[in-house]
Amino acid sequence: MALAVTVGCYTIASAVTALGRTTFPADAAEIGARWTGDATSVLGTRSPFGSELESNHSLIGALQKIESGQLGPTILRSIAHTDALNRVRRTLSTSPYNPELWMALALLQVQRDPHDPVVVEALKMAYFVAPNDARLMPVRIDMVAHFDPLALPDVKDLVRNDIRLILIRRSGSRSALVSAYRRASKLGKAFLEDAVESIDPSFLATLRG
Q1: Domain of life of the organism in this record (predicted)?
Q2: C-alpha of 189 from chain center
Q3: How far apart are CA 6 and CA 182, in angstroms?
Q4: pTM of this prediction exceeds 0.90
């Protein structure tokens, strides 16, 4: 009886936590502008479980520091950025199956050095943990197209699969491809055009337009 009550309480609390769970915005360009409040106050009423609370807290803290286009020495000297990065790493050591945290780690690290191996490894972990997670597809495509980790064939294959799923099964998310294309590097634009043309040529004009 006691076990049944415990399991029931955990299930209800987990459901409540899931309703308030922090996620990446559908448009990757909105990262950094969406979370401007105090992370502690936002999370104070969300979860009675420390691990969920810490994961949400770490993710919100990371999203607050991720601002598109800020790279180089300014980021390297930022204590707040370092703190957010270290907190995400610590949380991942106890919650390694959280794909949003792996994605946050990749995005935080890419701001410091787009060529750091941690960027690609964290990105791969985000795919490994949640390969078909529609919430992460826009930001994964955007990051790869923007920062050029496209020299690695396995990364290209992973992102191409995201593009295929959006074009074939999630037509409502196609605007994310257009947004990623606008922010992409020259290499990223060429990759997106090639991927879209091979999957749905009719969408190519919309992508470029």
Answers
A1: Bacteria
A2: 20
A3: 50
A4: no
